[in-house]
Amino acid sequence: MTPRAGDAKKKKKKKKKKKKKKKKKKKKKNEEENRKRKMKKKMRKEKKKMKKKKNEELEEKKKQKEDEEEKEKNRKKKMWKEMRKEKEKKKKKE
Q1: For the chain, what is the total number of helices (H) and then of strands (E)?
Q2: CA 84, 85, 86, 90 torsion-angle sign
Q3: What's the pTM value of the predicted model, to 2 decimals?
Q4: Alpha carbons 93 and 22: distance in angstroms, whole number
Q5: pLDDT digits 0-9 by tens, 36-78
Q6: What is d(CA 84, CA 74) in angstroms, rounded to the nearest whole number?
Q7: Which string of DSSP letters, residue by residue, matches 21-57?
Q8: Dihedral of CA 27/28/29/33: which sign?
């Protein structure tokens, strides 16, 4: 082998090593990006879940409030009805 051939072999080896290093770096970068992507997805999912929970709680509160208002309305109605009956009884007695 001539010295040149040896140099070429070394150069080839160096190139291969560099390529391998580059590939490793790229793989690491991809893994990092994938990890970030996964985290973002997880966060979005979590956010969505929290929003849904909040909306459900708001709906529940709204429903409860409406029920309370309905009960109050019915109670007042009943009270007025009784008062009218009382007045009519008094009128009949007179």
Answers
A1: 1, 0
A2: positive
A3: 0.52
A4: 106
A5: 999 999 999 999 999 999 999 999 999 999 999 999 999 999 9
A6: 15
A7: HHHHHHHHHHHHHHHHHHHHHHHHHHHHHHHHHHHHH
A8: positive
